[in-house]
TrEMBL record:
<dbReference type="Pfam" id="PF08238">
    <property type="entry name" value="Sel1"/>
</dbReference>
<dbReference type="InterPro" id="IPR050767">
    <property type="entry name" value="Sel1_AlgK"/>
</dbReference>
<dbReference type="InterPro" id="IPR011990">
    <property type="entry name" value="TPR-like_helical_dom_sf"/>
</dbReference>
<protein>
    <submittedName>
        <fullName>Sel1 repeat family protein</fullName>
    </submittedName>
</protein>
<dbReference type="InterPro" id="IPR006597">
    <property type="entry name" value="Sel1-like"/>
</dbReference>
């Protein structure tokens, strides 16, 4: 027996008269079936990923811009960490996002530039840098555009690398509220890339990144409190920041918080229930808990 979401979308894809709105709604329903792990219990046929892609393409061609955005996301990240479907295809994801960009979607423009950059697609580098410069010229205070410009400038993607200029862009992005930019500044000051190395400044930006809801900033702040690096060692503060990072989607932080509760790290009370809660969160985010525990000589 197949899930209703599959049969609904498959039927719509076969019907040339299906509307874009109906195709998109049914495609979201099938995507959610993957998120609910229905593929693991035999409710989704082997061709369900292809039907999902076909439905979103049809919806996009019919003028539903959100369908192109969702297709780009799925082809980059999959439905969920435990449901990596449809199969990752960066070039196809870029094409989907570009279709949204041509339809006037700012999210589409950012989507294909990000996808190209993080895949280090050499064939898209010049076009990505050019399109990003156009967007930034129109919206010079946009923190997402400033952050992405900092990434491309630091790595020399689409134009020569300029670490000092990258710091400038990240500073501007952080001033406009970007936690990811604040995190990048913590790394750049820590490594001395584009600025003189300054551990105190690096720690300051780690705090700022955590305050601005950067999961990586929260994770690193947890590490600082766990080890006493730049702050007084405080296991309770460490596990609090790891927990915050975990619920912002940082898988390793969830695992680390679980281990701290499992062993009573730094004088924390042993709490197996709390440990299991964090391990479940880590697994939900795609982290292999059991293998990592075994490597540490631990078990649940």
């Amino acid at each position: 027996m197949s899930a209703t979401s599959y049969t609904t979308l498959a039927g719509l894809v076969k019907d040339p008269a299906s509307s874009g709105a109906d195709l998109y709604a049914a495609a979201i329903g099938l995507r959610d079936s993957f998120v609910r792990s229905e593929h693991l219990i035999g409710l989704l046929p082997p061709d369900a990923p292809e039907v999902l892609v076909a439905g979103l393409r049809r919806a996009g061609d019919a003028g539903v811009v959100d369908a192109w955005l969702e297709l780009g996301r799925l082809l980059t990240k999959g439905a969920a960490p435990w449901a990596p479907y449809p199969e990752r295809d960066v070039d196809a994801a870029i094409e989907a996002y570009q279709a949204a960009d041509r339809a006037g979607s700012a999210a589409g423009a950012l989507g294909w530039i990000r996808a190209a950059y993080f895949a280090r697609s050499t064939s898209h580098a010049t076009a990505a840098a050019t399109r990003l410069a156009e967007l930034l010229a129109a919206r010079p205070d946009d923190p997402d555009l400033l952050l992405l410009t900092g990434y491309l400038t630091h790595q020399g993607y689409g134009h020569p690398a300029d670490p000092a200029a990258a710091v400038h862009h990240h500073l501007a992005a952080a001033e406009h509220g970007s936690g990811d930019a604040a995190f990048e500044l913590s790394v750049l000051y820590g490594s001395g890339s584009g600025v003189p190395a300054d551990q105190e400044e690096s720690h300051r930006w780690t705090f700022r990144a955590a305050e601005l809801d950067s999961a990586r900033g929260m994770a690193n702040l947890g590490g600082m409190y766990a080890t006493g690096r730049g702050v007084e060692q405080d296991p309770a503060a460490a596990v609090r920041w790891y927990a915050k990072a975990a619920y912002r989607g940082h898988a390793k932080s969830a695992y680390t918080a679980g281990v701290m509760y499992l062993v009573g790290d730094g004088g924390l009370p042993v709490d197996e229930d709390e440990a299991e809660s964090f391990f479940a969160r880590a697994e939900e985010l795609g982290f292999n808990v059991d293998d990592n525990l075994e490597a540490m000589g631990l078990s649940r």
